[in-house]
Amino acid sequence: MTNQYQTAQYRELDALHHLHPFSHHKSLREAGVRVIVRGDGPYIWDSEGHRILDGMAGLWTANLGHSRRELAEAAYQQMLELPFYNTFFKTTHPPVVALARKLAEIAPENLNQVFFGSSGSESNDTAIRLIRHYWALKGEPKRKIIISRKNAYHGSTIAAASMSGMAHMHLHSYPVYEGFRHIMDPYWYGEAKDGESPAEFGLRAARALEDEILAVGPENVAAFAGEPVEGAGGVKIAPETYWPEIQRIVDKYGILLLADEVITGFGRLGTWFGSQHYGIRPNLITFAKAVTSGYLPLSGVLVDDKIVATILAHDDDFHHGYTFSGHPVACAVALKNLEIIEREKLVPRVKEFGAPALAKMLAKFKDHPLVGEVRSVGLLGAIELVADKRTRRRFDNPGRVGLICRDHFFGEGFIMRAVFDTMVMSPPLIWTETQFDEAEAAIKRALDLTLENVAGELAA
Ligand code: PXG
User: Fold this and answer.
1) Cis preceding linkage at 175, omega within 30
2) Is the Cβ atom of 153 under 6 angstroms away from ligand 1?
3) Mutation test residue for ligand 1: of 23, 56, 60, 157, the one with most atoms within 8 Å of CB
4) Which region among 21-30, 232-241, 362-371 has the lowest average model confidence (pLDDT)?
5) Which of 271, 274, 433 has the alpha carbon at shortest distance from 361?
6) In Å, how far from its chain's centre is CA 234?
7) Banded pLDDT at 4 (limits 50, 70, 90)
8) Which residues contact 98 (CB under 8 A, 6 or more apart)?
9) Is the C-beta atom of 54 inside 6 A of ligand 1?
10) What is the pLDDT of residues 349-386, one digit of tens each?
11) Which domains does the chain have, with CATH numbers?
């Protein structure tokens, strides 16, 4: 590939004109950005020619890996046929119909209708509005409160950020929207009491939902929202007891369950949706990212038949929609993406090969002096770095050691993301033994180099 500019020029122009998402802009400009110019399968390349193994699938997204020709061709053909038309005024088009049908086929059986958007944040905004609209139509307009969890990430629009449980985001958009409450997240390693087993802790964390429902009054609660596995919050995997108890509580109080599957959708846990892995019955599933493997932006909400029936039973509009709801090219790419995932049997492959391979690889690091816990489910994994393995004491200034480690990963030609001092990964579904071996070697070297940097801070 020929570059119009050299790396240094890209960096300079980027610093002059480009405001990056979720960044410390001052230090970003001082350090300079990495310029990524190409991707192929499990690898990406930077402008200086380094090949990098992409342990994050872009950003929890490129489930098929990079630069699949068939996806590009699907986009090209659709652009020639019908590049854009809206779905607002009594119109539809073939790709959106076919995709909605396909999604209904792979989703849990009560979810048969889809409302489309372009980002996960948008889909969560849509879900929030649908949930409140539903209860208003049912004659229970007081049911407005949506309970979610601390450290949840549901997006960056103000509504999705309000539903998210990230305190630093709430500070930026203060005051955040009313009507959201946040309970503890099911993070056994960080939150369990001395001697509390994962099973006991899972029940306690789930019962925080019942406590909150009772505290705010069950008649005011509309829904519970959660990611089947908390992703950006640090790949926090709930103990086995958690989701069944959440489902029991949701059923007991008759509130809606929103599963945010923006990360867990489309095979990541070895099922089409994470809800199917955990055996929960959501009334709404929000999805984005891997529905197209990230080749084009597309998102949506899968909606329970009972919600749709309520909407249909009333003489009322749902005043909501996006120009790009059901964009034809994005839908055509999504259809092709799902077709390839199915053809290559990648969803069962995660269960049979990817998940055990990841768990086995991570387990090799659990005795490393820096590592407090390794955990994984499906193709989501985490390595938690601590200053004291025995007491689980964290390093001072959370995030500092995570960044040191992330830089060493980069140096080793491997990408993992740092969530404070937890290193997380979400590889594409296509990894073979070769990529797991490469990742293992890179992690080993990067952890050892990080250890050299922080050895003086470790507990004796
Ligand atoms: N829900 C979940 C569970 C997500 O992970 C969103 C909603 C919002 O999606 P959009 O498409 O609006 O970004 C996400 C997005 C990170 C990181 O640093 C994670 C996300 C986005 C950006 C960065 O891990 N997840």
Assistant:
1) yes
2) yes
3) 60
4) 21-30
5) 433
6) 10
7) low
8) 331, 335
9) no
10) 999 999 999 999 999 999 999 999 999 999 999 999 99
11) 34-67+345-457 (3.90.1150.10), 70-343 (3.40.640.10)
pTM over 0.90: yes
Could you tell me the distance, in angstroms and rounded to a whole number, from the CA of residue 1 to the centre of ligand 1?
A: 30
The one-letter amino acid code at 231 reads G
Give the pLDDT of residue 2. Answer: 44
- Which is higher by pLDDT, 135 or 166? 135
Is residue 268 in contact with ligand 1, taking CB distance under 6 Å? Answer: no
User: What residues are paired with 201 via a beta bridge?
Assistant: none
**Quick one: pLDDT band at residue 3, thresholds 50, 70, 90?**
low
What is the per-residue pLDDT across 245-257, written as a single tens digit (0 to 9) for each? 999 999 999 999 9
Q: Which atom of ligand 1 is nearest to the CA of 122?
A: 12
Task: Tell me, using a 6 A CB cutoff, whether residue 42 lines ligand 1.
Answer: no
- Going across the sheet that includes 36-40, the strands are 36-40, 43-46, 51-54, 414-415
pLDDT tens per residue, range 32-73: 899 999 999 999 999 999 999 999 999 999 999 999 999 999
Instruction: Please say whether the beta carbons of 421 and 385 come within 8 A.
Output: yes
Question: Is the C-beta atom of 235 inside 6 A of ligand 1?
Answer: no
Whether 260 is in the pocket of ligand 1, judged by its Cβ within 6 Å, is yes
246-270 as b/e: b if 16+ CB within 10 A? bbebbeeeebbbbbbbbbbbbbbbb
Q: Which atom of ligand 1 is nearest to the CA of 120?
A: 9
With a 6 Å cutoff on the Cβ, whether 120 touches ligand 1 is yes
Residue recorded with tokens 């209904």 = 104
State the Cα–Cα distance between residues 55 and 446, nearest whole angstrom: 14
Q: How far, in Å, CA of 180 to CA of 224, rounded?
A: 10
pLDDT of residue 32: 84
The pLDDT tens digits for 168-191 are 888 887 788 899 999 999 999 999
CB 107 near ligand 1, within 6 Å: no
